[in-house]
Each structure stands twice: as structure tokens, then as C-alpha cells.
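Give me the fold.
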Amino acid sequence: MAGIERYGSYVPFFRLTRAALGGGKGERAVASYDEDSASMAVEAAREALRGSEGGVDTLLFSTTSPPYAEKLNAATVAAALQLEEGVCALDLGGSSRTGLSSLLAALDLASSGRRVLATTADVVVGAPSGPREAAGGDAAAAFVVGSDDGIARLIGRGATTREVLDVWRTEQMPFARQWEDRFGAEVFEPLVQATVDEALEDAGCEMKDLARVVADGTNPRVLKSFAKKARLSPEQIGADPSMRIGRAGAAAAGLGLAAALDEAKPGDKILVFCAADGVDAAVFEVTSSVDQGRPRHSVGSWIDSKRSDLAYTSYLKWREILPFEPPRRPDPDRPAAPPMQRAERWKFAFVGSRCGNCDSVNLPPQRVCVVCQAVDQMTAEPSADAECRVATYTIDRLAYSLQPPIVAAVVDFTNGGRFNCQLTDVDPDSVGIGDELEMTFRRFFTAGGVHNYFWKARPKR
């Protein structure tokens, strides 16, 4: 069978305390006003692809909160990652089960010889004062899957699909609805047990043989019941990310699997299942190569890197739940297709140019070098992963922004080049010259239904 070669995760910087939501302990992760499921998928995929040898020929993007209802969101992800044009790209959605389903589909494709990047991300929005608002969270995960064992090979799986009215939302509904917990528990508890048993039998192991169990689903009562009946030990349950940042919809199972792989040892067996519109379950065995496939950021490090003072009114504004006065500036124009097409590698992948005559980096890319004026002697210079620092900055309280003020900085890159860009995930009062930064793919604004994506810099996390 195929296996996971590399993986990555992403958790946004901002947190909303459940006390601010009306009660309860803990926090939920909140995607910033300039983030969406596509931009978060890019962040997780960058982690998974960093250090990877060879390209991918298939890209899967699963979410229940797609930025575009009709347009291939996976194409945006592919452009930001600078994948080859020949890549096969697919969007999957409609249920939070698709996160794990897409990983299993990627493993099937890998078994036939393809190399697949499976990404999943969600921005979970619930009705104010409802359980989904408090228990949800925003995050992303990504997996590079190939035909070899990789760092974790699939050794068993099971699946059950059932038509059941548990969680639903139509295009006209701003928030998803869910039937009462008791009904969901009655339906899902036997389905989970049967599907997990199928996966364990396929893997040739028992519950006691598992080092970790990643349990995900739309009904918390079902997950608690399973853990109790299966007599799972605290070590098998581990540090569930959803307990600290909320359930991340379609990304929840993948994020839990990534957290398990962060701590896994060679020979460990990991069960992951998702109970939503049926059940998917898979058993992975960790190989001796696990250390080589780990990303720069663990799930735990993303969770620990945070800002927990987000105001509830700001959250409601970011999600367009609460009516608010727009910026007193002219609305931005809709991005035009021709210039976006011409500058695709710069706009989406942040690829500059390096002069072959004087070795200077030009950001944005140029035909004529800004230093030595050499003409058409440029080579591509990918700069999205280049380290950078604040050279100088200014705080603009007048420019159009959903979260004023804008912090505009002149940024110097260690590989060469200087660029003027916006900072994000930053406290305007704490910015300083010399601060270490890293680039991040964000959504500047939306006008005329078109999302204007580009790159910003954020404090190094």
C-alpha cells in the first residue's frame, strides 16, 4: 500500500476565548480577516513541501468553506505553491468528512503511481451563542502521498456511508444546523464501532496495539462514548488539538493525524477516523523515516504561537456576521483578469528575478535590472521562503482595511532584494526595525466577487 511521505499543518495566529463567547474554558483558533481556507491550505502545504524531493502530479483541496462557490479553488492553491501546470487539481467539499476522505483518495491514487498533495482547511462559522461557534476552530493540514511506505504507510482502512440528517446547510443558510446529540449518538455509535473494527481487521491488529487514536466527528458525545467503550488510555488519546483550538471542520482529522505524527516513533500504529455522514477509518504504521518527513512547525508550536486578546466584535466583523460601518474610503476596484494572468508567478507564488549580470534580486521581477540596467538577463528567484527583516515601516490609519491601521514595511531579504509590503498578524505598537519576518499568502480584499490574493509579511512564528 501507499504511504505518507511528508506532512504539514497550520493554525492561525489569533484566538478567541470561549469566555468572550459567553462562557466555557479554553480558546478557539480564528482565521484573520485576510485569511480563508485556500490561504490556510497554502500555508500547510508549504510546510509539507519544504524539503520534498520531486514534484506532485495531483492536488486535492477539501473544505466546507470554499472561497469560491464556482471556480476551482485548488487552482489558487496550485498557483501559490508554484506547481506545474500539468497538475491535476480537484476541489472536494460538502461534508467535514471530506478531509479524511481526500487523504484516503490520495492514497488510492498513489497506489496507481501518482504523487499526490492532499490539502484540507476550514473556516468554521457558527451562529452566535451556539455550540458550533464555541466548539469550532480554523486550521489546515496537508499530506504528500506517494507509492512508497514513506514515513507512515497505510495498513488498514474501513468506510461506511449513511444518509442521515446530522449536520446540514443550504446555500441560503448562513450557518449550519445540527440535529440533537442524542439522535446523532444513536446513529453514529454503532457505525463508528463497525467501521473501526473493519479497519483494525484489515490492518491485522487490535485496539491495544495502537499507540494513538485520532477520533474526529461532528458529535462529541459519540467520540466520548467510543473512547470509554474502547478503554483508551490517556497515552492513546494524546493531546487532541481540538481541545485547545476547537474542531477545525474538514481539517480536524488531518490536524489530529499531523499532531500524532509529530510525536510518533517508528513502529507506532495510529488509528484515525472521522464520523460525519458515515465514517471513514484508517490505520497507519509509522516507519523508521518519520524524522525525515517532519515539518519545520509542529501542530503544538502553531498552537502555542498565538494572540489571545481578539475582541468578539472584531471576530463578528471578520466573518461578516455583524453589520459594521465600512472604511470611509472608496471601495477597491475588482481585480482584472489580464494583469493577474500576466503576473501570475509574482502575484500568487512571489517569484522575483535575479540579474545574471550583477546578481541583484529584483522584487517585483523586471526585464531591466534596477541596479545595473542590464536587459533580459534575468532568472527566476522564488522568494516566498526567503528570510527577511523590517528595514523601516509606517503606520497608515487612512488606507482601506477591514482591520485598520495598516502597517506598511520596507522589507530586506537575506537572499537579496527589497520590497514594500503590508505586515499582518502584528501589533502596530510593537513593530521595530530589524524584526524577523516571513512571507505568508493572504487575501487583501474582495471586490465584485473576486478575491485579491497576494503576499504579506508576518512576524516569524
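Residues 330 and 400 are 8 Å apart (CA to CA).
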